[in-house]
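[#protein-structures] MJ: dropping Carboxymethylenebutenolidase homolog here for a structure pass
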Amino acid sequence: MGTASAVLTLLPLLPRRALVASSSPGRTRALLSSGGVSSSVSGLRPRFPPLSHRPILPSYADCNISVWFQRRCNLYCRRGMPLGRKVTGKSLCSQVELEDDVDDEACELVNGVELVIGEGEDSFRAYLLKAVKNNNGTGVLLLSDALGFEDSATRDFAYRVACYGYNVLVPDLFRANPWKLNWAVDGFDSWLSKQSPERVARDVDACTAWMIDEFLAAGISKKLGVIGFSFGGGHLMEALSRDEQAYYGTGICFYGSNMDPSKGSSIKTPVLFVSGDNDPSCPVTTLNEIEKKIQGSRVVIYHGRGQGFVHRPESEEEDEAAEDAFSIMRNWLHDNLLVRETELLV
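AK: finished. C-alpha cells for Carboxymethylenebutenolidase homolog:
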C-alpha cells in the first residue's frame, strides 16, 4: 500500500477531499443519500449538538478527558473504582456532571478511569468509561484509529456510547506512540511498520480477557461488543475471527482499513459495517465480499462520504451522516447485545 493510501487509511483529520479518489459503489445493502438520512432505521436520535460544531478541548493535565458539550460542564475528582486483577487504577478527575441547563435525558453521568492492563513490559494503558445512572452492565471494546486512545474525537465518541448505558474500554493500541498530525507524512510508513500486528493482537486479546473477568465472569453481561475505527476496524475483524468462545455478541466496523475478506468465514457474530463510497482505503466491493461471509451482517454506505466522517465530521452534511450512523450503531448495539441476549434467556 502506498504512502498516500496508508495516510488516508489512518489519518482522517487530514483534508480528505485532497486525498480520496472515486471508487465504484458496487452492491450495497444500503446506499444512502449525501445527506445520510436513512428512513429504514427507527428510534430516537440522540439530542447532542452537531459533531462538527463541538469544540475540541485540550486534554486536562490532571484528568485526561475531553468534553465536547457546547455548554460548560463541571469536572470534579473521584476516587478510582474497584478494578479487576492485573489492573491498576489512577485517581483521576473523571466524572462529568451536566449543569442544570443541560438536558440530562440526553446523557447520563459517566465516570472515567485510567487503567493499566497486564504486567511489566507487557502492560499498556487503557481508559474505561462507565455509565452511572443507566448502566446496563454490558462491556464494549473500542479500537481507535492511528491517533490513539487519548485523541479527543475518539474519547468523545466513547463517552457518547457510554451515555447510553455501556461500559466502554479504549486501549492504547500504540503503546504511547500514536501517530501525530504534526509529523512529516513521508514518515508514516516507518511509523506503521513499528506497530506489530502480532503485538496489537495480543493487546486486544488482553483487553478481551480483562472484560471477560470484569463483566462476563461476574454475571453482569452475557456478551461483549466491539467497535473499531479505521486501523481499529481492521483489528476488529481479526479479533472476531479469533473469538472461538463467542464472547462477543456483535461488532461495528467504521471504515475499517486493511481488512482481510477471508477472515469473514471465521466470524460467527453479526457485524455492522459503516463506510462511505468515497473512501479507497475501505472499498465497498471489499465490504460486500465480507458481508456474504458473515451471517447476519449488514453494510451501510453513505454516498460522497470518505474516511472518518462518523467520529470526525468536517461539515454540516457530514454532521447529518454522522448522526444517522450513530443512531444506526446505537440500535444495532441494543438489538444484538441487550434485546437478543434477553430473548436467549427467556
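MJ: nice. Residues 1-103 have pLDDT under 50 and may be disordered.
AK: one more thing. The radius of gyration is 19 Å.
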